[in-house]
Amino acid sequence: MSTIPKKRTSFQFGAFMVDPNSDQISFAGQTNKVEPKVMAVLLYLIDNRCRVVSVEEILSAVWSGVVVTPQTAQRCISVLRKLFSQADDGRDYIKTYVKKGYQIGVAPDLEQEKIAARSRSTAYWILPLLLVIVLLTVFWNKKQTSYEQVIFPHESQVATYALHPNKAIVAYIKRDPFSTNGAIWLGDTNNPREIAKIGHILPTAQIDWSPDGQSLLVMVNKKITIFKLNDRLDTIVDKSIVLSEADYRYRQADYLDENHALITRLPRSHGVYDLYKLNLQTKQLSRVLADSGVSAFALNKQLIAYVHRNGEIWHVKVFDLTLHKEIANQVFKQVIRDIEWLSDDMGLIAHVAQNELYIIPLAGKPQRIANYPEAYVEEIELGQRQQLYYLKKSSIKKLYLGQANVCCSSVLPTENIAQYHAVWDPLGKSFAYVTTTQGTSQVWLYSGGIHRQLTQFTQQQKLANLNWSSDGHWLLFKVNDDIYAYSLLLSTGNTLLSDVYFSKPLGFNKNKEFFYYLDTNGYQDRVWKVSLADTSKQKVLTLADDTQVVSSNGNIFYLGKGKNQLYMFDGQTNHLLDSEFPDDATLHSANAQAVFYFLNRPGSMKNIWQWDLTTREQKIVVPRLSYSGDVLSISPQQKVVYGQDIETKRKLYKRQLAPLLAPFNR
Length: 666
Description:
Layout: E1 11-13, E2 16-19, E3 24-27, E4 30-33, H1 36-47, H2 55-62, H3 70-84, E5 94-97, E6 101-104, E7 108-109, H4 111-123, H5 126-143, E8 149-150, E9 158-163, E10 170-175, E11 181-187, E12 193-200, E13 205-209, E14 215-220, E15 223-229, E16 236-244, E17 248-257, E18 260-267, E19 274-279, E20 285-287, E21 294-300, E22 303-310, E23 313-320, E24 325-332, E25 336-341, E26 347-352, E27 356-361, E28 367-371, E29 376-382, E30 387-403, E31 410-411, E32 418-424, E33 430-437, E34 440-447, E35 450-453, E36 463-468, E37 474-479, E38 482-487, E39 492-497, E40 503-508, E41 514-519, E42 524-531, E43 537-544, E44 548-552, E45 555-559, E46 566-569, E47 574-578, E48 585-590, E49 594-599, E50 608-612, E51 618-622, E52 630-634, E53 639-656, H6 658-665
Antiparallel strand pairs: 1-2, 1-7, 2-3, 3-4, 5-6, 8-53, 9-10, 10-11, 11-12, 13-14, 14-15, 15-16, 17-18, 18-19, 19-20, 21-22, 22-23, 23-24, 25-26, 26-27, 27-28, 29-30, 30-31, 30-53, 32-33, 33-34, 34-35, 36-37, 37-38, 38-39, 40-41, 41-42, 42-43, 44-45, 45-46, 46-47, 48-49, 49-50, 50-51, 52-53
C-alpha cells in the first residue's frame, strides 16, 4: 500500500492550480484554503490515479493510527468535489465506483513538480556532473548510436505515429490516459504541438503522411479522414472524410500515391482482413490481392510486402504490383505483428510475437536481431541513416491475492513493483512469481506474508512458464530460450536445455526423473521428455497444430482446437477424461484437483470454469465480477492470484539499426 504522499510544489490539475505546501487550490484567480487532511486525500488519489482506491485504504493511509469512520473520508471527497464544481467544464475530477471507492478522473500535470525536484536534487551535483560530461562526451558520441533513444521523453501515451517523408517530423496520435479520446500532434524530437482533436480513438487508430508531406491520412475506428496542412505544417487548412462505413472495420491505412491509399478491411460478419486500394477522389474500393487474411503490409515502390495468416501459420509474402505476381514467401510459426522494408530493398525487418525483431531477406533464412524482454514492441518504421523507430508498450503489473468467488482482492504488500507469472505450489501454501527490479528479472517466492528472492541473475533475462515439481522443492521455467531448473532446498539453479526455440517447459514427472517440454516448431506440436541424468530426450506425444496444453503435478492435459475431447497424459498412458468437453473452451491452467478453462462466448470470456478431476463436475469457480485484471493461478484451496496493470506507457523510441545488423551481415 502506498504511503501518504510527500509535500510537493504546485501543479496543474485540470482547470485548477494545486499548492500542497500551503493547502491551497486556486481557480480563476480565486484561492481556496482546504484542511490538511483534505489535501492529503487529494494527493493520495493522485498518486494512485491508475486504479480505484477504497475508502478503507484512504483511511489507513491518511489517518494511520487514528480511529475514524468512513464518513470522514467521504466528507473530504465532498469538499473537493464542491471546489472542482466551480470549473463547470464537464470533467469528472473524482469518479465514484459504487461499493469500490474513488479514482481521479483528470490527468494532473506533474511535470513542473518533477522539474523542480530534479533541480533541487541536481544543484548539489552540478559541478561534478559537468566534469563527468566533459570527460565522457567523446566516448558518448562514439557509442550513442548503438542504444535506443526516446523521442518525446514526457509523452507516454502515443497510440500510433508516422514519419514525415523528410524523416525530420513525426506525426502521432496521443491518447488521453483517462478517457478514450485522442488528438493529433506534430513535432521533431523537441517541440511537439497539438494540431487537432479527433475524439474517440479506441480500439484502433492509424496515421500516415501523403507522399508530398502536406496531408495526413487518419484512420479511426470505422472512418478514414484526410487532414490537409499549410506549408509550415502547423495548421490544418482542410479536413475531408473519404470513407465511413458502419458495417466494416479497418486495421491499417497507408498512402500508395497522392490519389490512392491501401487499407486492410473486413466486414463485421467475418473475421478476415483483405487488402484494398482506395481511390481518395472517387472513394471507390478495389481488391488488390487474392489472399484473404492480411494482417499487416509495407510498401516499397511497386512492391507490397504483407503478412498473410493461414490458421496458426504466418506468411510474409512480397507481391510485385507491376508483374502482378508473388516473388517471395517466408513462413513463420510465431505471430508477425508488423513489417517494414529495409533501405537496401533486399529484405524486411519484422516485429515477431510480442517483443522480437527479425531480419527477413527476400531469399534466405530469417534471423532474430533483437528482443525486448519486458516490453511490447509495436509499429516499426525506418528513418534516415538506418534509424529504426518503434513504439514500446510497457506495463507495471501488481499482484493481488484473493479467494475464488469472493470479492474483493487485497494487494500484496511488497516494494517489488513489476510482478508477473505467479504460480501456486502443489500444496497451495506459497507461490512463485517473476518481478523486475533494478533492471533485471528474478524469481521470487511469496509464503506466509513474506517475499523472498530466489534467483540472482546479473543480466536482464526473459523469465516465463514457471512450473513446480510435485513435492514443491523445484521450479522449472524458461530463461530466454533455455529451460532452467531451480532448487529451493539448495538455493541454486542451472540450465537443463539450451536454445530450445518456440517451446515451453511443462514441469517434471512425479519422481523428478524427467522433465517435459512442449515443442511448437513445424506443423505439429510435440511433447518431449528429457532425462535429468543424461539429458537424453524422447518424444512422448505428437499433437495436432495449435493443441492447447497445460500441466500440473507430472500430468499433462490437452485439448485440440475446436475439439470436445479432454485428455490427460500421466507419463505412460493417455486417458480420455471427457468426450463432451465444451468445443469453445480455452484451457487456462491445472492443479491437483481440477483443470481450469474459460469459454469463448459472449458474457463468459472472464468466467473461469473448473473441471473437477474426481467428480468430473464442471462449474464456475472464479466469476468475472469477482476480480479485475487477469487470473494467474488458482490453488487447491481455491485461493487466487490476480495480475493487474497499474500503469501502462506507450512511448516512441528510435535506435541505430546498423549494430543490430552487424552479426547478420557477417
